[in-house]
Design brief:
This protein is mainly α. It contains 19 helices and two strands. The chain has a two-stranded antiparallel sheet. Helix 4 crosses helix 6 and helix 4 crosses helix 7.
């Protein structure tokens, strides 16, 4: 890999890349949590260090020892800040919810380049980076040529923070909510982005009622499952793409999912409601952007089509909120 090649090259120049990465891995556990590839750090350095920002393989391989020594610490800190922001502000609780791993490169480089900003400006940076992230995800900007897109976004977002024009990624953003009914796990970016957007809402565990965190997800074996069970819908001849669309998914713990099995929502939701009481039941549903109160009749009546339409509208409202779409 490029990281190994550069490790060998710089070893003879007195720079131990492997030790630098090992120290960062030990100091910042979040790097391990998200299984970050050390090559990304070199790409981040390449964006930050070059007069004309670029992070293609050829640019990384052309890095000099002095550039790495000068920028390594800031780039690691920028990466940690980006991952922390994604986890705490964007609902990206695990690596499996990160729409694009390559988006970490410009994300971290932006933070690394703006480390000197203090006070209220920090809030402005977070707001603008967050909006750029969501527009990139739902605009599927990193589906092709991610390195070229990273270079563009790195320069554009930094310019935007300095009160210049809005980045093209944001200015040209459009989204058709009907896409959500056709989005399955194969459309990884929009699928994962939608789930992360749901969990940004402080989603709770169906079993323990605790707010979802990486630790709670691991402890309770929580994973991506159908809301209207797959087996239940299959018996009613609902097409697989419709049953598997992201609107019919959220994170549910293993024990609850096993109890659900092929039961309709009118059955298993009522069981949860009786066990939790109305207040906690509606708090749980609301935290997953699911219908509550009178609108929970979609579950009471096992109205799958009505539920999909309702959740499409609800999630689209959240998409508009985070992207600034009018």
């Amino acid at each position: 890999s490029p990281f190994e090649l550069l490790t060998a090259r710089f070893w003879h120049q007195g720079l131990n890349l492997r030790q630098l990465w090992s120290d960062a891995w030990e100091t910042y556990p979040i790097l391990e949590d998200f299984l970050v590839d050390p090559y990304y750090v070199l790409q981040i350095v390449s964006l930050v260090a070059k007069a004309k920002p670029s992070c293609k393989r050829s640019d990384v391989m052309a890095l000099e020892k002095e550039s790495i020594e000068k920028n390594w610490k800031a780039c690691i800190e920028g990466l940690v800040k980006a991952l922390t922001f994604l986890r705490s502000q964007c609902g990206v609780l695990t690596p499996g919810l990160l729409p694009y791993f390559t988006i970490l490169i410009p994300f971290a480089a932006i933070y690394a380049s703006l480390m000197d900003y203090k006070g209220p400006k920090v809030g402005v940076i977070d707001d603008r980076i967050g909006r750029w992230f969501w527009c990139s995800v739902f605009g599927q900007r990193y589906e092709s040529s991610p390195n070229s897109q990273a270079s563009i976004d790195y320069s554009d977002v930094i310019a935007w923070v300095k009160e210049e024009k809005i980045p093209e990624t944001i200015a040209t953003f459009r989204f058709d909510p009907a896409l959500l009914k056709d989005t399955t796990g194969r459309q990884r970016a929009v699928y994962r982005g939608t789930l992360a957007l749901v969990f940004r809402n402080q989603s709770r565990d169906f079993h323990s009622h605790k707010p979802l965190t990486q630790e709670v997800i691991s402890e309770n074996h929580i994973d991506d499952h159908h809301i209207f069970p797959d087996k239940y819908l299959d018996k009613r001849d609902v097409p697989s793409r419709q049953r598997d669309c992201v609107l019919n998914h959220t994170y549910i713990d293993r024990e609850t999912n096993q109890r659900i099995n092929a039961r309709p929502p009118s059955d298993y939701m009522n069981e949860i409601r009786k066990a939790r009481g109305d207040e906690k039941f509606y708090e749980l549903l609301g935290s997953h952007l699911l219908p509550i109160g009178a609108e929970a009749s979609y579950f009471t009546n096992d109205d799958f089509d009505g539920f999909l339409n309702w959740r499409q509208d609800r999630i689209f409202e959240e998409i508009k909120k985070v992207t600034g779409l009018q």
